[in-house]
Amino acid sequence: MGIRVAVAGASGYAGGELLRLIAGHPEFDLVAATAHRQAGAPVTAVHPQLVGLDLTFAATDPATLADADLVFLALPHGESAALAAELPESVRVVDLGADHRLRDADAWSRYYGGPHAGAWTYGLPELPGQRAAIAGATRVANTGCYAVAITLALAPLIAAGAVAPADVVVVAASGTSGAGRAAKAHLLGSEVMGDLSPYKVGAHQHVPEIKQATGATGLSLTPVLAPMPRGILATVTAVPTGDADPRAVLADAYADAPFVHLLPEGAWPHTAATAGANSCHLQATVDVDSGRVIVVSAIDNLGKGAAGQAVQNANLMLGLPETTGLPLFGVAP
Ligand SMILES: NC(=O)C1=CN([C@@H]2O[C@H](COP(=O)(O)OP(=O)(O)OC[C@H]3O[C@@H](n4cnc5c(N)ncnc54)[C@H](OP(=O)(O)O)[C@@H]3O)[C@@H](O)[C@H]2O)C=CC1
Ligand SMILES: CC(=O)N[C@@H](CCC(=O)OP(=O)(O)O)C(=O)O
């Protein structure tokens, strides 16, 4: 028997991707996959890509999950905190939801509402010092999907003093799976296909998370819903404070990061190149006209943006190499 893992919210998009990654992980044994309305259904009735996985969704209750060494929570916002509080401290937990990401209770109530559950160790291993913090934690808050893409592009530049933290502008497009699988009016196929539309303009819940993770003090984020199932492409622009080469700063920051790739000069990120992988592709330049630094970042929102990142964090918490069981390469086209 390997390491016993369980997934709560396994019938969702992030949960389904977790099941796929766990099935290919050499050290993990899946002991439970839970759902809410779909409890009792065969996993493959919901996730046809997992045919061969002979399992039925259990109901989401703490007793079922407490039998695992590590539990992934892939539940709607606000549902993780109460469930996690019922799990013994000996069970490691990675929460893919937002409940434990923010240290600032006011920011939590402004963007999410309801009681603030308090912050856990932030699950972005590529931030300075964070690998060791995650390795020593029993509770880890996985990052938001836009937050990963934008933080990886921006954090090293602010940390190096290469750009001004007070003036960061981001436009970022996301595939529709970022919104989860529950039916929503703005996700009707016939209206999403062939369309690009901004949403949560100036009011996205990842803004405080990105500010917390990067040290940005002024950040404008315009998210755009894109007609593709997976992927995030974020274009981050900021004002340089000197003449540091942004490519050199990023290359230095990610020299030892197996999943973050600064592309060769002149090559720009494509979301499709990250699909199915736990990778982030970056490119940077200085815009000759505006003088602003431009960094473009691509991830798979269900990979490095959710399930892949969660498995990377779990590997670190369990003392495994962080790449164990994780796809390094995408499946494009
Ligand atoms: N999709 C993405 O790209 C990303 C998602 N996340 C986060 O991961 C979490 C899951 O997201 P996602 O998979 O997209 O969401 P989905 O809507 O696709 O799935 C939600 C899951 O939670 C279950 N669920 C719904 N309501 C409840 C409830 N009241 N109590 C317990 N379980 C419930 C659902 O079960 P059932 O279907 O049986 O009702 C389903 O398994 C969210 O917190 C999300 O923000 C984070 C980063 C990226
Ligand atoms: C396309 C789309 O709607 N995306 C979602 C991404 C949410 C997400 O996955 O991140 P959290 O875990 O922080 O909710 C959004 O913009 O709210």
Automatic annotation (TrEMBL):
The active site is at C145. Its main location: cytoplasm. It is found in: Cytoplasm. InterPro entries: AGPR (IPR050085), AGPR_dimerisation_dom (IPR058924), AGPR_type-1 (IPR000706), NAD(P)-bd_dom_sf (IPR036291), Semialdehyde_DH_NAD-bd (IPR000534). It comes from the Bacteria. Coiled coil: none annotated. Its EC number is 1.2.1.38. NCBIfam families: argC (TIGR01850). This is N-acetyl-gamma-glutamyl-phosphate reductase. It comes from Micromonospora humida.
